[in-house]
Amino acid sequence: MDGKGPQTLCDLCLAQELADQLLQKMVTKGMLNDTTVGIFRNSEKLRLRSASIRYCKVSAMAFRLALCPHRLLELDASWVPGGLTGADVISGLASNPDCRASLQMLALNGLSLNLESPEEDSGVFIGFSSLQGLKTIHLVNTDLTDDVLEDICTLPRLETLDISCSSVTELNALLKCKNTLRSLIAHRLYRLDTTPVRLLFIFTQLHALRHLDISYNHFANDDSERRTNGDETVRQLLEAGPQILPSLVSLDISGRKTIDDSALRGFVESRSGLVFLGLLATGLSSSPVLSSHENLKVTGEANEKQLWEALRRYRERECFVKEALIHLYHLTTDTDKPQPDMLKLVVEDMRSHPESPHVHLLATACVFNLTTRDLAEVMPVRLMSATVTQLLHAMETFPNIQQVQSNCLMALCNDYLLQNVPFDRYSAAMLVIKWLSNHEEPTLQRIAVAIISILVAKISVEETALLSNDISFMKQLLTVVQHKAMLGLVDPTLKFALSALWNLTDETPTAARNFIECQGLELYMEVLESYYSETAIQQKVLGLLNNIAEVEELQPDLMDEDLLEHILSLLQDSQMLVEVRYFAGGILAQLASREEAWTLDQELRSTILEQLHKSIMTWPHLEQEMVSYRSFRPFCSLLQTYQPSGVQLWAVWAIHLVCRQNASYYIHMLTKEGLMELLKALDTHPDTHSDVKRVSQSILRMVQEQQSPCEVTNSQTEPGKS
């Protein structure tokens, strides 16, 4: 053998696996449509075996051309919008002789079958029985008729059949596959018109049956007689003894509320091989007989284990998802136990019902319970990322359902989550500000503004610029500040709004310009005066004015004598905390550094420069973090050798402060942005003031003391203003 044969076979297997993965990825990303599915037309280069086009808009023609040439083992075409019918799928598959023999699983949930009865199409028999290899068929929520069911049950290898929520009226056809059918799922057959005696007879003939699901939607307003007949069938089955369905190991009767405990007890005790019981919404999940069967899996509401099983098994059934979530919410209120597996199921159930307000109302409340306080910190980061994405989807999808919005905001207002979990923070900020513009409820307003203040601090400069392009974002935050200031309030909402505005204008000239255009400067001048004794408020206001002062084209807007004299008084006030005096000094340093742009009295500039130097020399070393910088670019002009000593001293003091508190991050920034050369120039220039030299030299020593090259990947990132 020359060795080419095995290599070719290996390549073929790899191509099949990659083709299946590629298709699945396209479906997951929402990229599959009539155009993109065309890449699978060449069935020699991309050979599909397991294909899912679930929820993807693919036409009958595109389906036939792209997928039907493949020798498929499995196909899931459930919930495909746009007109694809079961008849289209079956005729397309049947046109390929290989598929007629190879296909083992077919799911057409949610489609119109458009098969009144099996028929001929261009000489080819069109019906499920034309696909002789089928073992598993899923036809949930379809217009399945009795005639089509007859055709299905002639399949020689049929083992699993799901006809839940279909329109069949009788089940006599099941007798045709009584020796092969191992799993029958018949949840909520709302048109079934068969007596309990006849149903029980049919079930007794299914000799190979191991799993039977005859659960019911307890929320549905279906015909009471049909519901009663179903309940009576279940009761008779439970009381019939193990000679009926002797192979049965799994039974689901969830939603059947009229069954009594004695019938259940007799059934469980007579079947030692039982592995699963579906008892959600029956009132039976706390039955004592279950406690003696530890290995028996149960869906119910008696405990979290039963609810976990319910959320896992019933993902596609909205009625049971809602029931399980109701009980989960009550069980997890005030919980302090991390439950990542439960949270994962809640998120997956939200995905499975993207348009259901009821599911999202309950699920978002459960998410809050499962992630509140410190619980989020011990969850897998990827799970938390998916959780946030679903919360944002819920906010976007149900903007008018107040409780959903409230649940999402409360769940999102988690410091760890907002700071450390990866998700689309830009879109989140836009969603929350949109909510804020339409609501004024005080508690939720505080939460929304808190979320925004953190998000704005964490997004990139580019994303901040995008946010600033939407002037409504700025207006909404200023409206919050104005409302609080008018009432003279000092509360968390005001502080969060000020922090958000501070971060929004950080190195973002467009945002700074919008701030001025929205009369923010006038508002902040009022806040500075009216909140003179509130250090935290003063710091945030002055921080934003620093950002404006860093933009040369906006400096003329700050050339107001009353404003600068007020800021100068804050700088000079020895009773004022350094946190306030520092930012006052930054504004004055930026404005006084450009003599050619100074439009006020020169004596005021001279006083500012003198007081800058004098004040800074009295500032103590700070241990706590006070400020952070995205870059040192605004400092470059202040570090020039021709600048006045007061300007230079403020800049080096600021750099020294942050480098001492977060050396690895900021020393790397110094080197990367070329400030080392400026500091060295200051140190060696003969006219540099000794105070400036001393601080510059201290910074240079810190750089030298770094034992290894600074690596940004191992350093902290700046937290943003708070």
Automatic annotation (TrEMBL):
Superkingdom of source: Eukaryota
Alphabetical keyword list: Ubl conjugation pathway
Domain Zer-1-like leucine-rich repeats region: 155-257
Natural source organism: Poecilia reticulata (Guppy)
Family: Belongs to the zyg-11 family.
GO CC list: Cul2-RING ubiquitin ligase complex
Highest classification ranks of the organism: Eukaryota, Metazoa, Chordata, Craniata, Vertebrata
Statement: the UniProt record of this protein carries the keyword Oxidoreductase: no
Domain Protein zer-1 homolog-like C-terminal residue range list: 349-704
Pfam families membership: LRR_Zer-1, ZER1-like_2nd
The protein's name in its UniProt record: Protein zyg-11 homolog
